[in-house]
Amino acid sequence: MKCVALQEIRWEDTGKTKVSQTTIFNGKYEHPHKLGTGFAIHESIIHTAKEFKDINPRISTITIKSKNLDMILINAHALTEEKDEDEKDLFYATLADVFASSTGIIKVVLGDFNAKLDRDICYKKVVGNHSLYESTNDNGVKLIDFEIENGLVIKSTMLPKKDIHKYTRGSLDGKYKNQIDYVLVNSRFKNSILNIRTRRGANIGSDHLLLGIE
């Protein structure tokens, strides 16, 4: 993995830190000592990483520049299901503004959306039919509305995988497995992502599993 989106960094100030062969771009946390997003970029591609922006403790962006195109990565950490509706609406309004103002040919929105999506046929073109769930929660509805309004597809539920490679967070007792982290891309470039699956062996010190993209 040469570029990793990070949530819950919990570092006090926005900054850039070199750790071994990786540079971490981080946003500041929200008091009291929670949230914070950013990116870890391997040294082999660090020359392509430009314009890190810390929008707020739940959203950050980075531009990856190549010879032929620019790609914008938007890292998002949505509120949990039980949070206030106005707070959730504000999060998505801010995310929509960030998406609209970001320049680049390819736009990828990824992160922890705390959302559950079903396999309803009416959403097949934008969600696919490879979700773990048979019902959609409120956060899922908000995520679907956001992607439709912004011309995105949820690529991580469009690719056929065994269930063990779909879930991104498990309960401590091992009884429950949740798919709440997603990768969205503007529909024009949906075929540029060939594979998405969890990397269960990665030692990342988190109750979430690493979601790999190819």
TrEMBL record:
It comes from Sipha flava. It comes from the Eukaryota. The lineage of its organism: Eukaryota, Metazoa, Ecdysozoa, Arthropoda, Hexapoda. This is Craniofacial development protein 2-like. The gene is LOC112687460.
